[in-house]
# Entry
Amino acid sequence: MSELATYESFNVEVNDYIAHVQFSRPDKLNTMNKAFWLELPRCMQDIEANTDARVIVISSTGKHFSAGMDLGVFSDTKSIPMTGDPGRMAENLRRVVLQIQDTVSSLEKVRLPVLAAIHGGCIGGALDLVCAADSRYCTDDAYFTIKETELGMTADVGTLQRLPKLMPEGVVRELAYTGRKFSAQEARNLGFVNAVYPSQEALLDAVMGIARQIAANSPLAVTGCKEMINFTRDHSVEDSLRYMATWQAGMFRPGDMMKTFQAKAQKQQPEYDDLFPVKGLFES
# Structure
């Protein structure tokens, strides 16, 4: 296992097959600055390539999980020119938005389950982010808002595409059109979060416990679950069943099942091989 890179926007620790990514700019309300958008997909790739992690937990520090997009991102005239040919400006902005979308999508593309532990405000771009996590948990003082509408723009990084798959569409429309806050309890009632906890400490204890349960299972079986659930969300049942059959024909091997049966017979915890690390074509 190689040493992890360091990041400006968050700290990363890997223990007992769990990668803990914790936002580390509480004095700035963990706003998502330019470094954040560049670093997060690199972090996901780093965890896959250089650690033995089998699950990722994302949490935060300070008063809020994240106040969302740092507006300084859009005032960077080097990245987003504000003068010149309108067509070229528009083409450039489209590419910037696609890059930001890819950052959020990195949580879906990483083969490991991603659990979001949310406290305080989860605002704007932060809501985009947690919508891409596999599961969400929060404190009872947490709240969520599609803040972009109040700022005079349409949310463009994934909330409007993912949230209707996670809660009733009519509610999502109301939240998007009004920009109002919705509470932890409302989020729980709508099925957006799995559970609500009385404190950040209790939240992290519980989410780490769930992460340990995931990490104890066959990593090949778990990554297969993530692949199938993501595919099914965006395809028909028939297409998804066909893909499942193809996946099973290629990926299923009895080795992990035999380890499970043997461990149960001996009343022990099964020990599974790690997945091969995700490397670039010519990386060693």
